[in-house]
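# step 3/5: fold
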Amino acid sequence: MYSKDEASQLKQTFWTTFGQYISPQLSAEGLRVNWVNYKTGIKYVYFRMEASKKSASIAIEIAHPDAGIQELFFEQFLELKNVLHSVLNEDWEWQLHYINEEGKITSRIIRHLYGVSIFNKNDWPELISFFKPRIIALDEFWSDAKYAFDALK
């Protein structure tokens, strides 16, 4: 069992390690990018990577405070679902108006990996292998898809 500080430090070490590992990878547009804190350029639309003691996930999160506008964003992603899935080469879970850990209503498109722990360094290669191709694929998708969201800015 780790103390709160030890757990925080281990998580920070993992994300630093992941960031260093993926940093040579350029974006789909040939630019350097902060993969761990990926900026979509659209307010309230985030690419989130999370890892805990039992699982990991990567998601497109729509966090607009207005549920109606949030639904419009989600519907726009639905219009692009086939494109997204073809770039990802897998199906993801689509959740409209999901209540997150903080009790806020968000919508998300998410993929989970179970049976791994950020606190087990032996799982880090599997976590990196899970996150890396998916965040790169999300970037590839987003390099074209972001223009479909201009009207919702």
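# step 4/5: annotate
The beta strands are 45-51, 55-62, 93-99, 105-114.
# step 5/5: archive (pending)
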